[in-house]
Amino acid sequence: MQDFTPQSQRYAKLVDRYSRYIESPVLRLKFLNSALKSRPPRNRWMNLVPLVNELPERMMVIAELSKVLPLDQPGPPSIRLTSLLYRVRAAVYAVCLLATLLAGASLVYVAAKLVNTLSVSTEARDIATPNRPASNSSGMAVAAIASEAGLTLDKIWLAEQGEGYEFYSNGARVLTEFESGGAARSFYRFDLDALAAEADEGKPLARPVGIVYHVSESDLLPFAGGFNKSLQVHSRALLEYARAHRLYNYVIDRFGRTYRIVRDESAANHAGNSIWGDGRSVYVNLSASFIGVCFEGKSGEGSAVGGDGINEAQVYAARVLTAVLRSKYGIDDSNCVPHGLVSVNPSNRLMGYHTDWVSAFPFEALGLSDKYETELWAVSRLGFGYDSAYIAAAGGAKWPGLARADAALKEVAERRGVTLEEERRQLSRLFQRAYKKQRELEKEKRGLRTED
What is the pTM assigned to this prediction? Predict the structure, then answer.
């Protein structure tokens, strides 16, 4: 998670101010991402000079702005003035420094006269302000909702529907401004024993059976009123991009607003190569079988949840949306999982091609059981391994579900009298069989859609 110092906050406000010269939302987002990734120059001595101490930062922002402004669009007068001042900055610095010194000397003189004139001294007493306890971390208040206040899934229904929105009995509000269609869902539910015997001839299914939670990995501004306009621009650009590429079924923006991007009956392009086993069956390439829900936010070192990250409004929106989807499609708790636990790379047989939510997902706040406790069948039953980068993304230590998968794989290998690597190779054949069958089904559906 990005830390915001007073200097970086000042620089971010400059970026926000200059972004208003760009009319195109796409170009504005490109400018914001580029400018916020740049490190503002720091000069300790220059910071002491008022009025012009922002000149280097302003020029860095203007340089980024010039990359996206149309060539035939004249620069605003304020930008031309800043450029002129920067070119003669040495003279400007000297004048401002001299003015500062003169003002300081005048202030000292006036203060000395006051001290000599006044004969009565005054005392200042410190007024102690009692320390206030730190606020609870995001999502704690949501998780603390009394169990007797929660609605059971059978008490959730579509209460109202209007132009651009749906409202549900549990308070969930889904905005449909960006809603679009996509390829029809079609997937297999695999039984591993039948798959091993090459006898799994199950019929394709079309009703979603789970939810995968994602993080958008967007560059984030501080979540503060001074950045309101740019926050709105960031969110809208994400929604437009997600709709154009059919990335998710739902996006929850930083204000906790839930947008439907791809209709539930259609497969969004959210999960890629992925595996999940719920203790009974295995699903491969979850875009077809699971609904994709994305939080606007950014993963990084530590938790993605926080005041300037994924916040309480988003967590609550995800909670009520999860309840709506589970109620509507009969989705079992065991199939509500974060992307980092399902994403795989078939080319090297490793977990963690994507690692969003590989740790710190707020299961309790969403009313779900902790899937970090669930044995990863991709490892124990289908032979996938993992590397140090996967563990590092989770905070540097294995979680219980991964440790259980390792233990189960080792136990089976020892019972069969083979090495772990040989056992993994045997299990990977099961995955390849399931993967091939699911891919053929997807290609068939794409071909039918093209003909239509």
Answer: 0.72
